## 1
Amino acid sequence: MPKDDNTVHYEGPSGGWGSVRGMMRIYARELSPPTVLKTLSEQNKPQGFACVSCAWAKPADYHPAEFCENGAKATMWEMTSRRCGPDFFAKHTLAELREWRDYDLEQQGRLTHPLRYDPATDRYVPCNWDEAFSAIGRELRALDPKSVIFYTSGRASLEAAYCYSLLARLYGSNNLPDSSNMCHETTSVALKKLIGVGVGTVVYQDFASCDAMFFFGQNTGSNSPRFLHPLQEAAKRGCKIVTFNPVREKGLETFINPQSPSEMLTGHETKISCQYHQVKPSGDIAAILGLCKHILARDDEARARGGKVVDRDFIEQHTHGFEAFETFVRNTGWSEIERASGLSRRDLEAAGQVYVEAEKVIAVYGMGLTQHVHGFDNVAMLVNLLLLGGNIGRDGTGLCPVRGHSNVQGQRTVGISEKPELVPLDKLAALYGFEPPREKGLNTVEACEGMRSGKVKAFFGLGGNFVRAIPEREAMERAWTGMRLTVQVATKLNRSHLVHGQVAYLLPCLGRTEESQVLTMEDSLSCIHGSLARRAPASDHLLSELAIVAGLAKATLPPNPRVPWDSWVADYAIVRDRIEETYPDLFPHFNQKLFTPGGFYKGNKARERIWKTASGKAEFTVPTALVACGFGEAPGRYRLITLRSNDQFNTTIYGFSDRMRGIEGTRDVLLINRDEMARAGLAEGDVVGLVSDAEDGVSRQVSGLKVTPFALPDGCVASYYPECNPLVPLSHHDQQSKTPASKAVPVRIVAQGTAAHR
Ligand SMILES: Nc1nc2c(c(=O)[nH]1)N[C@H]1C(S)=C(S)[C@@H](COP(=O)(O)OP(=O)(O)OC[C@H]3O[C@@H](n4cnc5c(=O)[nH]c(N)nc54)[C@H](O)[C@@H]3O)O[C@H]1N2
Ligand SMILES: Nc1nc2c(c(=O)[nH]1)N[C@H]1C(S)=C(S)[C@@H](COP(=O)(O)OP(=O)(O)OC[C@H]3O[C@@H](n4cnc5c(=O)[nH]c(N)nc54)[C@H](O)[C@@H]3O)O[C@H]1N2
Ligand SMILES: [Mo]
């Protein structure tokens, strides 16, 4: 895609002074106390605390300041001096607050008191903890456990998550969806089926020895910036990084390390990707197919000369399904591949050649692959690609799905799952003397469907901003009010606290930096870390997440001497002992290893080439479609990508500066290339709306978006998440994992947009 002069594009590198300015802006605005700086110096280090932002690895040989722009923003956001207490709620009805922007809600600062919704005044009023627990307990006892949702957003610790899942099961429910259901659930389902483990296989050291990395749909510069350090080191030593992304993301182009005085002073930037392919959204299956076709062709030539490219010994010994896959690749023509991927044969061959020449290959990916109707096939194609060269289970090779929330992977490890087969229920039954529910619980999409049908009567949210993060926002907000009970545990006010059931509580908790005991998290590379910061709590009325779970359990469940909640709250080490007993293979000597530099590795069978799959081997698969979006082309129809900026953490909007994409001052933009603008008769600065083109008869729309020329492939547009969530149909999700397909949403542009409707 040619980039013309006045197309919005940031010319600077990622990192560098821009990232320092980004941090300082938040530092000043949050009225940050001086202790923030001390806290930041302890971030992501042994004996320090695990960042509250993303799940990227915390290396053993850490940098003096092992945090990034976004980790610093997240810490300052939690440690803000602003407070949102009873005075604030006395002044505003919820009807009024529902008109506020997300940004302004969270700007009020930390929640300070437990609050009960008062229908007579349409306000939240303070209550005490005992009153809240006993009222919620009474409601829960009166409900069918199958009609209650226990949602978790991926930042709660292993200890809190273990207790929370135990509470749900003791109560009688497997309805334990978490943010992973909107995120990497595609990974958890696909990798489990194809290689026998639901997580990535690489470890940190692999980045130091791989020859090539293939990057699909992961925006490192914004979303996991500390990953830029090993990437920069790899690029410098000659490792080839090949990127596939419809958007030219700055962090994958160039980087100045803000930790390096010489780079900062000289402005010397490192080129990260040696090839950057602007694949069409949903075009990855075809793109990877193109790489495989080239690899097979080079292998044919090599074999004629007595050499090889494809690792047939590995395929023979370790995989299943190769023949069908090979036939499929050979039978698919280049014109079909070019059409579906939006990339030329020449470009795909150039990318494939990097694979051919590399002995050790890593594949990295994020939401650009997982959030599609055929997201499973996206991930499965990446597995096919790696298997061709025996690139799983050798040093310097493997799969690297980059997880989002700081403990989203770990929560799944310790029992937060709606899928009973993933949880050692017999073990729990024996340890705690009860009969856990055995039937499948509801995931996020199913929970939403249940709210709409009236089957779901209560929602308990341990963190997150559920109604803002899910698809089909308007319909879901209406459904929400039909519930009997909603309880939200949070640090800051958000939209999900303002739409509520008949009975509603908002319970404020300690942030991770304020806990007085060690907590643990699992990072993206399966290493487990202790975390301790011991900062003064934002208010005397806060409880830890674990204490809230325990308080609720005591108020809801009959006493069980094997679950002494009070002792667990008093000493989290006891909870870790229980985690070790429940998962002895993963957590041996848990309490002795809390501050292992770099974390302690949970282990990974696929990395050892032990395949816990149905066939006992790693699976090659033939994709069910060449295009991952699940809908066809039609005149005026675009594939909408919903984007994150580097000035947000999910639905928390820090500010309106998407520095690395050159978009400043607003998030109400429609990004589109100039050729498409001309075809649609649009001029820069026009204000337009988007409507759903999902052909399901439901009208969905977002308005007030400013047309902004941007170097995207044809046939697609981009705008921000969560503003565009009203356009994502609930039925539009990955076929296997039900992860909402937020990266290619069918829309049409309408020219009558007026003021932004938020
Ligand atoms: N600053 C910041 N950091 C975050 C977060 C945040 O909101 N802000 N959120 C956290 C969470 S929970 C998560 S899950 C992660 C998310 O981190 P990522 O996985 O990076 O997710 P996104 O930014 O949503 O999208 C990733 C990329 O996919 C590209 N893309 C879109 N469609 C396609 C496609 O069809 N094919 C390909 N190849 N690429 C495509 C987009 O252009 C974008 O660059 O980040 C975590 N870290
Ligand atoms: N269209 C579209 N939709 C998407 C996505 C997309 O790319 N496109 N991405 C999806 C993804 S990957 C995800 S993970 C979801 C996540 O979306 P969210 O639910 O927004 O995730 P969080 O960042 O966990 O939620 C933010 C809230 O968490 C609360 N919080 C902060 N710290 C704490 C804490 O320590 N404890 C507690 N209890 N609460 C705390 C604050 O009140 C804050 O308002 O959104 C999904 N939705
Ligand atoms: Mo996520």
## 2
Amino acid sequence: MDFSKYLHKFTVVPSLSDELAPLQRIAYNLWWSWEPDAISLFRRLDQDLWSSTRHNPVEMLGILQQTTLESLKQDEGFMAHLQMVDEKLTNYLGEKSWFQREYNGDTNLKIAYFSMEFGLHESLPVYSGGLGILAGDHLKSASDLGLPLVGVGLLYRQGYFRQYLNNEGWQQEIYPENDFYNLPLTLERDSAGMPLEIELEFGPRHFKVHIWRVQVGRVPLYLLDTNLEENAPEDRLITAQLYGGNQEMRMLQEILLGIGGVRALRALRIIPNVCHMNEGHAAFLALERIRLVMEKRNISFREALEVTRAGNVFTTHTPVEAGIDHFPTEMLDKYFSKYIRSFGLSRDEFLGLGRQRPGDQYESFCMAVLALKLAGHANGVSQLHGEVSRSMWKNLWPELPEEQLPLTSITNGVHTRTWMSGQMGSLLVRYLGTRWLDDPTDHNVWRRISRIPDAELWRTRQTTRERLVDFARCRLKLQLKQIGATAKEIATADEVLDPEVLTIGFARRFATYKRGTLLLRDLERLHRILNNAERPVQIIFAGKAHPHDTEGKELIRQIVQVSHQERFRHRIVFIEDYDMEVARHLVQGVDVWLNTPRRPMEASGTSGMKVAFNAGLNLSVLDGWWCEGYQGNNGWAIGKGEVYADMEYQNQVESGALYDLLEKEVVPLFYQRGGDGIPRDWVGMMKASMQSLCPVFSTDRMVQEYAQFSYVPSYRQWAQLEADDLALARELSGWKQRLFGLWPGVTIEGVDAPLGDSVAVGSNLPVSVRVGLGDIQPDDVLVEGYFGVLDNQGTIRGGETVSLAAAEVLGGGLYRFAGELECRFCGRYAFMVRVMPRHPRLGPVYEPGYMIWG
Ligand SMILES: *Cc1c(COP(=O)(O)O)cnc(C)c1O
């Protein structure tokens, strides 16, 4: 018998009296998760429950008996603590922000940040790894800085899997259900109190969506949910798992995120003017924005594209094409054939939006290409990744030199207060004041780190390492219990690791390119390093492999097998189920953070930054962010940034370099103690690391850069195009059509410059160009010299452009443009000239096929 139709559902919530109501308010704003006083408030409520709920205050308040809660009112200490935290939250929400100070007046800016995953806290498991943590940290800093931003994502019933290992060390996956009613979620409702609902109809699928809100400080995050009773079973599964299911499921999730996300915001009466796609997953949002503008203003696809593109920002995170979603054209036919009718595009025109070569029938539909074509600003996540991305996507801008592609970089960061230990935070307040909190990107503030006495910084290091060892032992006991170990075996967990020993951490996704086993290549040598009687070393590993990644799981198995060997049993530990809690303990407790990606596969990496904020030192291949962070005295580099063709050879060379570094530099430095037991030089390096890295690698700096270089310029351009009922957008679209029609007549007839003699450094080289424009006016084009020093491959590096002014009308549509190139460095120079369209108001316009070089 099916009882489901008899179920009358209702929700029970704790009923707190007025005095205790602030508890609820704090529990429902994830601000608490980066406020140490709020965390200690909840821990104080019930220490055991705090751990067993995975630090979930909402669930905890639900479990605690009403009488227990009410009796708190008699606890004066608790009530004072509660009041203090409540006031802190009120102050936080009301304080004048960086954004108000910097951009006073731009009150119409509204940013929506779309991401497939958000890592905000371990109690809200809707993230898998780096991408999600970055998104979570982005929202937190956006809140701290007061950006007018909202987040959009999906609310997964099961989130990402939880990991445990069997006896052999083979990864097992479990998918616990998220109980939405015990999470800090609020269902969005309409004015009649009914759940707000949006509908999506794509191909054979037709379903409804609910919207839940998570409050992240001042920033709301809206999460979409298809698990509604009225939806078909297969549609209810769309929000079942993060990165679960097949390619078709992935496409449905991306339709939901991008298109459903825009519709959800409209239902909430939020009309963003800047939409940020965190990775290509969200790129369908650009189509929906176009569709809405077309519908509302009755304009063409091209016109709508001009406005909306200005307001789209795209961040790519992958240095390899295989890492990006590609969908077969049949799948687009299946789901989009009806949707694209509203665009007035042919099937091929539509499919071309996702192709590098739009006419290539065989090319699949790539979400990154779609995003790059429909976003006005695009960036990679470190300088090196920016370079790699430009090289990857250069075919999209065939006429531009690689270094000039409109694909820049904004290096990732981490949310300081989320990742820094409470001890370190208090130490900094004592010696730096609170300026590092208010103005975290100010180098001068962080220079004051040198004022902290070595002994105190070292003591903090010792304490957090001890906490990590404690935590690792506890976890190990739980792990042993879970696989049915005997009491005696479980007791041995107390013997592993040593709180005084140099501790290396390695935790990340077990993808093969990250080379989690590089350190295990020569076990004899490793044994001599770890078990040196005077100068021992220990390593803690953690990380998940994707459920389908057998190779990644094999790496985990190897590590676990090695850790079971008698000689390594006390020195190597694998902590299961890497999540934000494990990460926090690790980054706060380790002395050294090891990172061994195969360059340039690590787009940025962020865990090493978390370590830097806790005075740990990085030991890493020069890849991702570390190329920018490493300065010689603030950690160690494995190799010099070489790229090898032979992977096996590379592993050999780099593991050798790693062992050498450990033996000759890292270990001796750590154990070189003064009479007081303090390793002065090591502490000096800790300070150099914090001084150089903390002001740079935070999401505060990162979000400020997004505001400065992406959001605000995007918004201004969008506003210009949008003004007066899209006057400029319509005009631009018509202008482009006319100009592009005349473009085939544009020619460079000749270039004149006195190249015979060498040019003295510091002097200028006069250049003039004769350009045939036909019926195009000289005001409608930009003529430029692109020049610089040639590298040994004959390419201009670090080139500069100088615009050449119209100097003479030669008649017959022929014009002379002239200017001077400033030769500031010695060396072999070269220059080229180019002509491209320039809109009188909007400036140069680059579109593939409309630039000529001479
Ligand atoms: C920070 C973090 C990551 C990302 O770290 P990478 O250095 O990019 O590998 C992944 N997972 C968790 C749980 C984290 O906290």
